[in-house]
Amino acid sequence: MDWWLVIFFIFGSLFLLFIIGLPIAFSFLTVNLVGAMLLWNGTAGINQLVLNIFDSVSKFSLLPIPMFILMGEIMFRTGLGVKVFETIGKWFGRLPGRLSIVAVGSGSFFSVLSGSSVASTALLGSLLVSDMQKKGYSHAMSVGPILGSAGLATMIPPTALGILLASLASIPVGHFLIAIVLPGILLATLFFLYIVIRNFLQPGLAPTYDVEKIPLSEKIMDTIKYILPLGIIVFLLLGVIILGFGTPTQSAALGAIGTVILSYFYGGLTWKSIRDSLTGTFKSSVMIFMIIVGSTTFGQILSYTGVTQGLVQLVSNLNYPPLVILILLQISLLILGCFMEPLSIMMMTLPVLMPIAGGMGFDPLWFGVIMLLNMQMATITPPFGMDLFAMKAVVPDDSITMVQIYKSVIPFILLNGILMLILILFPSLSLWLPSLIQ
């Protein structure tokens, strides 16, 4: 069978299973089972499928995943995130667009705590939107900054989506987490500058209001108490890797232990929070490992049937510069992000895109960072971005419509696009830090 017919039937079957509502992991496993039977010589194919499943999850590099998830679960369930939010808010006083800037600052910190943009959207939305509405903030300066900032959880380590992408793309997890640090900080800076400049030009979007004057001593004490300890967690996660003191797996374990100790001293660690954190960790870890199983075998089927080689050859024969092809690939992913969630997109495209990236001479680490940014955009891209619906779920009553949410997030999608162009033109932003630990 020609490779283009194989890809038509495989992807057609996947879309059909998605439409009828079968979960992503089971959709891929179903296609893998049928593909192994038909394309891998019947029973022998099923036996090979079982071996592939074992090999895909029995990797040392995957051990950080449950540790990072556990860390985020404990941070949120012990209430430390709310304390961080309150401390950040005390520093901005009567600054124009104060609450919007607080959203950016809090989103940056929560990204270290949660690793999930949906969780950050739910927390920031429930804490900020109602207060912003009472103070006369427009949707562009309330909902927009929250959705944009929540997406930083995808671009600042530890990020569950980033770890999954690195695992599926066979990129060293530790190097990948280091590679996204500078892009994540740069994205937060772009959000901050946009809010400040737009509020300067259109002050009516975020009216100033009287804020209780807080003594400098209280700000400093709260920062020392609630913000600086997070620096210890960041060092355990990233500093240990950069300085060569440990592997990504060891740093993940240290980060989880540090989070447990920190939560205990803040008084939020209870048996209930421990039980809920472990339950959430088990559920998320099983889901991620099933996704890895499905995607790895899926990629092997595509390779065995000649689909991957056919697509690589097709792209290589295009009479376009590699940079143009890279941009076209990102535009294609962005279009997919309008209708599908990131996990589905990564599982369907990574087995094909990584060989294409290798064939075009792209650095896999650099290509992975750009693709992760694209997946972050998919969480806030209308009409089906996950974070958009998470925001709608937490806003009070029917005060904000989905159309208003769509409009408010467009400037932040454009800012993500600007960062993507910067990363494409200046690969060193992604590759400099990882080069320090090679």
Describe the protein's architecture and organization:
It contains 22 helices and no strands. It has helices at about 5-20, 25-40, 45-55, 65-75, 80-90, 100-115, 115-135, 145-150, 150-155, 160-170, 175-180, 180-200, 215-240, 250-265, 270-305, 305-315, 320-335, 340-360, 365-380, 385-395, 400-425, 430-435. Helix 5 (about 80-90) runs antiparallel to helix 6 (about 100-115), helix 6 (about 100-115) runs parallel beside helix 8 (about 145-150) and helix 13 runs antiparallel to helix 14. The radius of gyration is 22 Å and the shape is globular. It starts with a helix and ends with a helix.
Helix content: over 70%
Secondary structure class reads: mainly alpha
Q: Roughly what fraction of the amino acids lie in strands?
A: under 5%
Please tell me the total number of domains. Answer: 1
Largest sheet: none
Low-pLDDT segments, ≥5 res:
none
Count of individual helical segments: 22
Q: What is the residue-averaged pLDDT? A: 80
Q: What is the CA-atom radius of gyration, in angstroms?
A: 22 Å
Pattern of helices and strands: HHHHHHHHHHHHHHHHHHHHHH
Q: Overall 3D geometry?
A: globular
Instruction: Give the total of beta strands.
Output: 0
Distance between the termini: 44 Å
